[in-house]
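User: Hey, quick favor. My workstation is busy. Could you predict this chain's structure for me?
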Amino acid sequence: MRRAATAPERIDRRATIRAAGRVLALALILAAALLPAQAADGKNTESIHSKILGEDRSIFINVPSRLAPEQRSPVVYVLDAEANFETVVRVLQDLGRDHAVASSMVVVGVGNIWSRSRDYTPTRVRSSPLVDQQTAATTGGGPKFINFLKTELIPHVERNYPVSSNRILIGHSIGGLIGLEMLVNHRDMFTHYITIDPSMWWDDRRLLIDAQPIFRTGNFKNRSLYIAIANVNSKDMNLEQIRNDASDRSELARPVVALVDQVSAIAPMGLTLEYKFYEREDHMSVVRPGVHDGIKFVLKLLPNPATKAGRGAD
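Assistant: No problem, here it is.
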């Protein structure tokens, strides 16, 4: 029989989770400091003013130099751009050796990791063992951020860059959470969603609960979802053990597994699902392999570059 965790053990584990969140934020900020304003030909930054958010937003852009005149390419939108933009660009370069579509993709990095707890959370929450009071006070800005993407950023990109309507979104952690919020409630925005260890525990699994009837009745035609599951705080457990566990060790991973089980069981109309459990990767180290495998999955669904641009986010 599994021994129940004592109160001090539960407090210690939750303190560890909060500390891990602070480490994630620090890692993202350090990565931002290392990202050059202009890394190479075709890569640059620009600032656009958002009336919706009432602030300027930094945008990182990579347009491959090999694009032919008049060619319109699939476009990848990357959240937490200060940390993840270069990772995505490099993965596309690597995959481009065997996949022509990958080498032609435009990458748009959405910056401002300092306000990620505001932008990437679909609901406002009170402080709890998982969310400290200072962070909780900033949460719930997801709807405005989604409106910024939909009505300001995407139109700006499509007016100024050679992109098709095949839009791919990549989000990690709470960036994956807001990505799933868009798939569930705003699925016209993107064609393909790559979610890397999404924070499905947020707000007592509210999105997981709210998504169930929508997955049952909604039409997800031409949409795809890739889910990367990290082995968080439970390195000695496999996927089935996490699924059946009830201890604090798997409290962050279980909701992601529950999402996979929910989507697999319901099989939403028109949605193509793929997922992978990264048994040897934690919440941070899973990013690069998750990006790599997620993009490989999407490449199988994109039209041949020799044909005209296929259906996108229609």
